[in-house]
Design a protein that fits this description.
Elements (H helix, E strand, L loop, with lengths): L1 H5 L5 H83 L4 H27 L21 H9 L4 E7 L7 H21 L4 E9 L2 E8 L9 H20 L3 E6 L5 E7 L3 H4 L6
């Protein structure tokens, strides 16, 4: 109608073609603008979701790290305090009859305390970002290579502990080695705190790619202090189970055949971890 009435481009066919091209160009321009607006809205929503997902992952990672640090601190403090209390009680009993032996026990208390303080500083040092330059490097986390030193500290309390290694040792990796060490440490701590045992046996069996750990004693499980002590022991066992599960393993704790208490763990380190050397 506009082409016939006004003929803006000359003859009617030419005017009709001109007006049609103008309408089509406006239509495509509108469609392009609408598509661009939808794309910008989608990009904004995607960026918002990615930001929320990043914050959620950071929160989960922080919670997991807090749990790991809490587990490490529990093992360090619980074991060290159990040894210190046992040594202090022994020193108090023998100091009158044999002052020299009492002094040796107190010296061992001091050594255990310094060792625990060093472990805690190394553990908490990873949380600090303001370490001054020139700070000496922190010692690696303990592994199966440090079980001998651990047993020496336990023997100082009067508990006879022996270590047996079966099979051909193979590299466990730093994480699995630390798990093995902590399981033995927590099991011996429970023996000191909750069992009137005179002897404990630690057995590490290698059957690549599986390592088995067994800590058994000849005592009778007791719960001094009532329900609180029982709950404390249960948390320790739960922590050991969590450590074993991290390496595709399992843990069992309960009365041993023939009396006493036994903790048995099976670890299956990942291939990537097993290829790394165990820290000295």
């Amino acid at each position: 109608m506009a082409a016939a009435r006004w003929e803006p481009a000359g003859p009617v066919p030419r005017s009709l073609l001109f007006l049609t091209a103008t309408v089509v160009a406006a239509l495509f321009a509108g469609m392009t603008a609408a598509s661009g607006s939808r794309y910008l809205t989608w990009m904004d929503e995607r960026a918002r979701r990615l930001e929320i997902q990043r914050d959620q992952q950071a929160t989960i990672a922080a919670a997991a790290e807090r749990t790991r640090i809490a587990r490490e601190l529990h093992d360090i403090v619980s074991h060290s305090l159990s040894v210190v209390i046992t040594l202090a009680d022994a020193a108090a009993l023998v100091s009158r009859a044999d002052p020299g032996q009492g002094a040796e026990a107190m010296a061992e208390v001091s050594e255990v305390g310094r060792h625990a303080l060093s472990d805690m500083r190394a553990m908490l040092g990873v949380l600090r970002t303001d370490e001054p330059p020139g700070q000496p490097p922190q010692a690696p986390q303990p592994g199966v290579g440090q079980l001998g030193a651990l047993l020496d500290r336990v023997r100082a309390t009067g508990l006879a502990v022996s270590l047996a290694v079966e099979g051909t040792p193979f590299p466990l990796g730093a994480a699995a080695g630390l798990t093995a060490y902590r399981i033995v440490q927590e099991a011996l701590t429970n023996t000191l705190r909750h069992a009137s045992a005179r002897h404990a046996q630690v057995t590490v069996s290698y059957d690549e790619p599986v390592v088995r750990i067994r800590v058994a004693d000849d005592g009778v499980p007791v719960t001094p202090g009532g329900q609180d002590a029982a709950e404390s022991q249960g948390h320790g066992i739960d922590g050991m189970r969590e450590r074993a599960a991290l390496h595709h393993g399992a843990l069992h704790a309960g009365p041993a055949d023939g009396g006493g208490w036994a903790v048995e763990a099976v670890l299956r380190p990942r291939a990537g971890e097993a290829s790394r050397p165990v820290p000295a």
